[in-house]
């Protein structure tokens, strides 16, 4: 869990406790090896469970469980 928090903090560039749409673009490019707004929009739609326009840590965990091996 600590490694996931460190990874979350890495992508939370402004340290506001959430991953914004602009921060999500980098996350998608780095972690999912995908480029473009289309993929980040799909990820936001799928994992922004409370639909507040950002990815919080709990939503980030779900994203990682779905897309990353060896958690």
Which helices and strands occur, and which strands form pairs?
Elements: H1 2-11, H2 21-31, H3 37-47, H4 57-67
Q: Count all strands and give the number.
A: 0
Contiguous helical run count = 4
User: What oligomeric state do these chains adopt?
Assistant: single chain
- Residue windows where pLDDT falls under 50 for at least 5 positions: none
Mean pLDDT: 91
* Range of helix content: 55-70%
Provide a descriptive summary of the structure in words.
The protein is mainly α and 71 residues long. It has one domain (2-67): Recoverin, domain 1 (Orthogonal Bundle), CATH 1.10.238.10. It contains four helices and no strands. It has helices at 2-11, 21-31, 37-47, 57-67. The N and C termini lie close together (9 Å). The model has no long low-confidence stretch (mean pLDDT 91).
Provide a concise account of the structure shown:
The chain is mostly helical and 71 residues long. The protein is built from four helices and no strands. The model has no long low-confidence stretch (mean pLDDT 91).
């Amino acid at each position: 869990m600590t490694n996931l928090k460190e990874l979350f903090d890495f992508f939370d560039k402004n340290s506001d406790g959430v991953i914004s749409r602009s921060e999500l673009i980098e996350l998608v490019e780095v972690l999912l090896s995908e480029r473009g707004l289309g993929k980040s929009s799909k990820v936001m739609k799928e994992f922004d469970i409370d639909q507040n326009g950002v990815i919080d840590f709990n939503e980030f965990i779900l994203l990682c469980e779905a897309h990353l091996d060896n958690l």
